[in-house]
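Lecture notes, unit on binding sites. The following record was shown on slide 14. It pairs a sequence with flavin-adenine dinucleotide.
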Amino acid sequence: MSASRPLSGEPGTDDTPVQATGEQIYDVLIIGAGPAGTSTAIYTVRAGLSTLVVDKGAASGALALTTKIASYPGVPETVTGAELLRRMRDQAAGFGAQFVQDRVLSVELDSDPKVLWTTEGLYRGRTVVIATGSMGRTQTVPGEERLVGRGVSYCATCDGAFCKDEEVAVVGNTPEALEEALLLTRWASRVHLLPPADTFRAPTALVTEVLEHSKIEAHPPVRVLEVLGEQAVSGVRVAPRGDSERTLAVTGVFIYTQGNRPITDFLKGQLALSESGCIEVDESRQTSVPGVFAVGDVLCTHLRQAVIAAADGAIAGMAIERHLSRRERLRPDWS
Ligand SMILES: Cc1cc2nc3c(=O)[nH]c(=O)nc-3n(C[C@H](O)[C@H](O)[C@H](O)COP(=O)(O)OP(=O)(O)OC[C@H]3O[C@@H](n4cnc5c(N)ncnc54)[C@H](O)[C@@H]3O)c2cc1C
């Protein structure tokens, strides 16, 4: 089996290519190098635990896609998500965490050591951390995928402030869509609400508040045909039911037709998931399987933010150290 490629931009990993042969048993295997996985790695390597972070692509997580972050504590200037991630990964690699670019296809979580099966081979570890995020959605509108993080967003809390005095569109008819439309009125000059059906699937009081808001224009049911723009969103092309196509000149399109989809397909039923597919954990971020932890957006968290993902990593990192040292005390001959 071949040596896996280092995750681009990681210092130190070129010298010591990680072998996907399963020969080395790591203390900690982390799937996902977003803020959750990287923060976990900072805590586990600093606790003296050998740590490998496996990520399918440096630019594929939620933070990596984000063009502007202004809400991360200690980083007052507006940075791109990619830059913030690079700093986090450099910090973890500087302490000794290893990073490798590889996609996890399946896992064996009940075995000892636990195994990750990947495109390149396999990795074995005493503990596993799942930090794969919730970008498992499929982009359905033409232009949506190209413009994610460039005006297409799924989070008004994250990106609303970048739409100050601009016109934006909100696509959806769920409580989340309506709440987000209301939130956007704090910044946007006008919010076009584009429901896919002629009824709102939300409490009456919330619907009334939205429909009566002076900054919100609720359109009749529309099909969203395309998000327009090259480097940034410049408009959205819609087909109102029973009317001819038109283009709305907006700089932001907030889409709430699917919700987030946690990336858990590779688990193949080995962990307890909620009905919506997110991973259930205890206070220490341990899952239903001892020694398997989960952090960040893949959890059933209400608020998906980089700082919360990083905090999860701190909690799990410290719990892993306790978990492994307790096991070592119980099994002194354990190697
Ligand atoms: C458009 C947008 C704007 C945002 N703006 C902000 C903001 O301004 N402020 C803020 O705090 N938060 C913001 N967020 C939210 C923030 O980005 C997320 O909460 C955070 O990135 C979650 O971190 P995570 O590590 O859990 O997941 P992610 O950042 O999604 O990272 C998951 C990692 O797992 C890897 N992965 C997935 N599956 C596999 C697999 N099978 N094998 C190997 N690797 C795998 C991915 O490649 C990825 O690198 C924004 C999100 C979006 C989408």
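Take-home: Helices lie at 35-46, 62-65, 81-95, 144-147, 156-159, 175-184, 204-212, 306-330.
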